[in-house]
């Protein structure tokens, strides 16, 4: 397990550049660091869950990787190159905001935007290839039936499945997901998280998956990055999601139990990982 004080690089045993690499990364707004001395490698095909209470800096980490936020110190690379704004190597599922009812863009056009910057050529062949890719992405999230309707008229969960398709359609090297399961029913939570994990393994994309609820993705998670009040722990789910480690992070007693393959966390600010009603169903 890597702790906030350790600065040693993680050896991946792969010749490929990591999908994501942070070294000695520190981010602070004003005096208070959100995290400091963060060393993180996400290998191609690896699935990393990012957890922590509200305001611990999870979304800010994604903004750093998107090139939208500068580090105070340290370095950040995407596929071996410095992170930069507008990189088409990154697929991004932003934290969900409900769209206004009068948004008239259609779902399939939103998904097509995920292919902008890809050069299929202007001819019939290029257009056909583009259409096939959009159709396949819509099919994968089971959104074909409503893909021609205006976005503003769709439910929150339907809109979210289209955002997932948009992020996946360009076959990115890095997939950044900011609470992508919000407003999805339990069946689509499972399908969408399985889809993201399978795409990651299949195409070699590295995934950073911000979530308050680890249970729907627990079987797919390779590593957990847990942020709390300027401290962090990075390791396998077993290394991080245990009573000793979380008690140390929260600086108060936290109990972690495994119940039927799920994690139940009690104490700290850990309403995050209680088994939700949907999970128990
Ligand atoms: N541009 C900014 N300038 C100043 N403070 C900011 C800025 N962006 C975020 N913050 C603050 O940094 C902290 C971390 O925010 P961030 O959105 O990264 O947290 P989070 O872990 O994603 O939280 P949540 O779980 O609530 O989504 C918050 O206290 C937030 O108010």
Shape, per Cα inertia axes? globular
Order of helices and strands: EEEEHEEEHHHEHEEEHHEEH
**What's the average pLDDT?**
85
Cα radius of gyration in angstroms: 19 Å
Give the biggest sheet: 7 strands, mixed
Specify the structural class: alpha/beta
Sheet with the most strands: spatial strand order: 1-11-10-4-9-8-7
Number of helices: 8
> How much strand?
25-35%
Approximately how much helix is present in the residues?
25-40%
| Small molecules bound | adenosine-5'-triphosphate
Termini separation: 33 Å
Provide the low-confidence segments as ranges.
4-14, 273-281
Give a count of the beta strands, DSSP E runs of length 2 or more. 13
Pfam family, one: ABC_tran
GO molecular function, one term: ATP binding
Protein name: Metal ABC transporter ATP-binding protein
Domain ABC transporter: 20-254
Chart the SSEs and their pairings.
Elements (H helix, E strand, L loop, with lengths): L1 E2 L16 E10 L2 E11 L4 E5 L6 H8 L7 E6 L2 E2 L7 E4 L13 H7 L10 H17 L15 H14 L4 E5 L7 H18 L2 E5 L12 E6 L2 E5 L1 H4 L2 H8 L3 E6 L2 E6 L9 H4 L1
Parallel strand pairs: 4-9, 4-10, 7-8, 8-9
Antiparallel strand pairs: 1-11, 2-3, 2-5, 5-6, 10-11, 12-13
């Amino acid at each position: 397990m890597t702790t906030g004080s350790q600065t040693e690089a993680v050896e991946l045993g792969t010749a490929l550049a990591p999908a994501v690499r942070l070294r000695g990364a520190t981010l602070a707004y004003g005096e208070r660091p959100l995290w400091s001395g963060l060393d993180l490698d996400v290998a191609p095909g690896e699935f990393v869950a990012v957890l922590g209470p509200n305001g611990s800096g999870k979304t800010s980490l994604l903004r750093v990787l998107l090139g939208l936020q500068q580090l105070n110190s340290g370095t950040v690379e995407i596929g071996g190159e410095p992170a930069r704004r507008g990189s088409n190597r990154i697929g991004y599922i932003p934290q969900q905001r409900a769209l206004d009812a009068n948004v008239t863009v259609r779902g399939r056009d939103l998904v097509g935007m995920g292919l902008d910057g890809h050069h299929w050529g202007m001819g019939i062949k290029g257009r056909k290839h583009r259409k096939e890719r959009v159709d396949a992405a819509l099919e994968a999230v089971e959104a074909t039936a409503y893909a021609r309707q205006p976005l503003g008229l769709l439910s929150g969960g339907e809109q979210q499945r289209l955002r997932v398709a948009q992020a996946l359609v360009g076959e990115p090297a890095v997939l950044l997901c900011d609470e992508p399961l919000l407003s999805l029913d339990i069946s689509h939570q499972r399908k969408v998280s399985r889809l993201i994990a399978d795409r990651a393994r299949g195409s070699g994309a590295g995934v950073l998956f911000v979530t308050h609820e680890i249970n729907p993705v627990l079987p797919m998670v390779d590593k957990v990055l847990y942020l709390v009040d300027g401290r962090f722990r990075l390791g396998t789910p077993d290394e991080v999601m245990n009573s000793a480690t979380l008690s140390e992070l929260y600086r108060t007693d936290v109990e972690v139990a495994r119940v039927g393959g799920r994690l139940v966390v009690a104490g700290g600010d850990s309403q995050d990982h209680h088994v939700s009603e949907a999970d128990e169903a």
